[in-house]
Design brief:
Layout: E1 2-7, E2 10-13, E3 18-26, E4 32-39, E5 45-52, E6 58-60, E7 68-73, E8 78-83, E9 92-100, E10 115-116, E11 120-125
Parallel strand pairs: 2-11
Antiparallel strand pairs: 1-3, 3-8, 4-5, 4-9, 5-6, 7-8, 9-10, 9-11
Length: 126
């Protein structure tokens, strides 16, 4: 079992920065991949970024490459998403998720993930 609690969302102007945090609790975290997804009103839930807790491999959606950085703080058991150069299109509810990694797991697919946080709203204004 893994529990996830997001924080750090808010209102920010276009071009600004925001850091989301996901507090992770559970056992054997080394075999999990942690992901961030987002969902805008009327749209599907989209992959944003993911990181393998044990090996620190990272994955990014093309739309956020070079702007967003995912990393984990082992001491605090948190996964963070640093978001820079925010755009209006980044407005969404952001969700933290976890998946127990086995061979063939696609870290970019929301269907792979078993555990989800409650979400945190990010609103980018012009």
């Amino acid at each position: 079992q893994v529990q996830l609690v997001e924080s750090g969302g808010g209102l920010v102007q276009a071009g600004g920065s925001l850091t989301l945090s996901c507090a992770v609790s559970g056992r054997a975290l080394d075999i999990y991949t942690m992901g961030w997804f987002r969902q805008a009103p009327g749209k599907e839930r989209d992959f944003v970024a993911a990181i393998n807790w044990g090996k620190e491999n990272t994955y990014y959606a093309d739309s956020v490459k070079g702007r967003f950085t995912i990393y984990r703080d082992i001491a605090d058991s948190t996964v963070l998403l640093q978001m820079n150069s925010l755009k209006l299109d980044d407005t969404a509810v952001y969700y933290c998720a976890a998946v127990w990694v086995v061979a063939g797991t696609d870290p970019t697919s929301s269907f792979e993930y078993s555990y989800w946080g409650q979400g945190t709203q990010v609103t980018v204004s012009s």
